[in-house]
Structures are given as C-alpha cells and as structure tokens.
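We now fix the convention by which a protein and its fold are recorded. The integers have meaning only within a learned vocabulary of local backbone shapes. The record below shows the convention in full.
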Amino acid sequence: MKRLSDINLRDPYILPVSRENTYYLYGTDGATAWHGKPAGFDVYKSCDLLNWEGPYPAFRPGPTFWGTHHYWAPEVHFYQGKFYMFASFKAEGIARATHILVADHPLGPFQTHGDSPITPRHWECLDGTLYIEKDGTPWMVFCREWLQVTDGEMYAVQLAPNLYDTVGEPILLFKASSAPWSKPGEGGEQVTDGPYLHRMGNGQLVMLWSSGGYQGYATGLARSVSGKIIGPWKQDETPIFHEDGGHGMLFQDWYGNLLLTLHAPNNNPKERPIILRVEERSGTLEMKEVSSAF
C-alpha cells in the first residue's frame, strides 16, 4: 500500500466507480515526464483515498503506436458503456497531440480508439478533456501550446457520438492572457494547461485550468456566460489555488463531498498528487481545511 506522498505523479485524475467502491488514480509519471521513453500509463486504486494499491499497467503501446515520449495527462471518462482515456503524446517530427484510448474496465488494458490523434494534425496540443453538453453532445476541450502560439489558447471541438472523429472546426474559447492571474514568462509566453469542466450547483458552467501565476503554478476558474461550452468565457480575477500546484480536477467521494486533486509542487521530481476539500460558496469554489490524512 502507498500513500499519495509516495506516488510521483503529475496531472492527477481520480475516477470514482461506485459499483466497485473503488477510486482509480491516473497521471503523468514523474520519472519520465520530461525525459526518457515511458512504458505507458499506470493506474492506482483505493477504497478510501488514503491507501493506494498499484501501480497496475493501464496502457502499454503496441509496436506501431506513434507516440514515443511525453506521455502526459491521462484522464478516464465513462461514456456509453466503456471507459475512454484522453491522453497526450509526442514523437520526433510529429506535433504533440491528444489520442483517445478505450477499455472495458478502468484498469484497462486500454487500446487506441481510432488510428490517429483527435487534435488538429499540425497544432501542438495537449490536455484534451471530455465534456458532455446538456443535450448529450460530446465535446473535447484542449490546449494549443504556447510553444507554437506564445499566448496559450483554449479550444473546444465537437466530437462524433462514437468519439472517433471531430465535427466541425475547433472553437477558440480564450487565451491565457485573458486571465489577470496568469503571469507572462520572460519571453512573453503564457501557458494554458489542464482544462476540466464542472457544472456548479447553481447551474453555472465553470472551467478549472492552470497557468503560471505570480506565486508559482496556479489554478483558476473561467465561467461560461451562456452556460454552454462555446461560451463566451469570463475569467475570475484571482486563482483558487496559487501555491505552486495545478492541473486539477473535481470529483465526489462516497459521502457527497466535493474534492479537488492536483499536483504540488510543480517541481520535478518532487511533485505529488494532493487532495483538497472544496465547497461551492457564493458562486465560487472555496478550499476547506486540508485533511492531514491526504
């Protein structure tokens, strides 16, 4: 058994599966996040969010799989009876892209869903996440990297019902510079990372996303004025987490508590998944006292 403090993961994603009384934890392996060829993606499991079993091999690429390094930010969604992993990959001479994988169980084994990535071929992209609109239409929100556009961009693209293809062109939602809390780097670059969509109790659609902040890596909220994925999107003035941690997502435990997981610090190889208790209050997300158990 391991505690979260023993697990060197970036970009954590926790999938609760109530019928198994099990939480599944995915993420970017810290040891190979920037250098080397990863074996694939692993998964950990827990019944209490305190003690974690694993790692178990969730995805191992076949000999013809195109991605060779930078296996980043896997997240798993249950959709139409199967588990779909959205993850980013890179290869020499090939733009970073999000590829969709599929399995019958959260432990995998995950296989490629479609022959090619789902993001635009010549764009440097990452961190695709699935969002199902109120009318049942699947969308993917993803980032276009600052490496290519300087001012990082956030896009949404409609997906076919079977998730094999996109429908129409990507829609620009906002740029990193639209958030007052996003700090430009020395070359003027601004990052868009880790989008995650959440419908608040008051019906408002918000997006968690991360960027460089004035006290380190940070996570803030954008709000859809229309309540739909296409926006327009308005940025909060201050981040909800500013202490050098980010790429977060929200989930509920078995008792209905709303929890936020993200990695902190944003310093390889010291990054670890952490879990924070949050509350929806006055239209925003407020951190409650952090449990030492996590």
